[in-house]
Amino acid sequence: MINSSNKYKKQKFFENFHCYIWQGMGNNSNTYLFADVLEGEKRHVIIDPGIISSEFRENCFESLVSAIESDGLRVEDIGLIINTHSHTDHCQSNELLVQKSNAEIALSEEDEQFRHTTGRKLDAMFGIKSPEFTTSIFLKEGDLKLGGKNGITLQAILSPGHSPGSICLYWPEHKALITGDVVFYGSVGRTDFPGGGTGQLKNSIDRLSELDVEYLFPGHSTEYGSIIEGKSNVEHNFQAIKTFFY
Fold first, then answer.
1. Are 137 and 144 contacting, i.e. CB atoms less than 8 angstroms apart?
2. 38, 36, 47: which is closest to 73 by C-alpha?
3. Within 13 Å and on the Cβ side, how many CA atoms surround 129?
4. pLDDT, position 227
């Protein structure tokens, strides 16, 4: 088994916002965590915990747990799992996290329907184990209030194109945008999978580009990089995508 103990690059941009950027070989997503934003003992929120193990037998979930714990946090204290969309590389670890924390899971209704139908067929085609979990919160466009001593309000933005119900999360307080697989550094999410569509993705990107964004946090890194910092750099990235892809 390949040692995956250092497969995540850890970054912390704001007081309670932790970034775990996947550095391994396999197709795994980046993960983001809001610490101490919920009331009660289960006070953390995690976004896109990724896959359990990669096609290269990297222990992705174990590596993620190790990275989180090295930040002085416990996965047992996670109260909410948010999935930007239902592709397996973003949500396969949901079931293991729920076993450890009994966290609730949030996903758009469009992608919840997709994962039980076309999504399973897509996984079968690639020989991937479909994730087994129960969604208890259906994300809709609008404010998503996360209450607690450091409570925050995110804006959920329905952004179809890569999947039928992809959700991006905008944090106005820090002008930060979590994009899942809608927008990357210098690239965009695939639209050739079932449930995707170039026209829909273009419309989603047009909407997102109108936001006041100084930090863009994508679901995967590309050859150009990962997190984009600075308003002008974010704007340039959107403009480059519109020019070269559409």
1. no
2. 36
3. 13
4. 98
> Is 218 in a helix, a strand, or coil?
strand
pLDDT score of 144 more than 80: yes
Query: What pLDDT does residue 1 have?
Result: 31
Distance CA 92, CA 107 (A): 13
Q: Give residue for tokens 């209704």.
A: 109
Question: Residue 96 corresponds to which tokens in the numbers above?
Answer: 């293991």
Q: How far is the C-alpha of 169 from the C-alpha of 147, rounded, in Å? A: 16
pLDDT of residue 246: 83
244 burial type by CB count under 10 A (0-12 exposed, 13-18 middle, 19+ buried): exposed
Average model confidence (pLDDT) across the chain: 94
Structure tokens at 105: 């899971």
Q: How far apart are CA 216 and CA 205, in angstroms?
A: 13
Give the pLDDT mean for 53-77: 95
Look at residue 89 in the predicted model and tell me its pLDDT.
95
Domains of the chain: 8-245 (3.60.15.10)
CB atoms within 10 A of CB 14: 14
Give 173: exposed, middle or buried? Use CB within 10 Å, 0-12, 13-18, 19+. Answer: exposed
The count of other CB atoms within 10 Å of the CB of residue 161 is 23
Contact predicate 16/46, CB 8 Å: no
Tell whether the model's pLDDT for residue 2 goes beyond 60: no
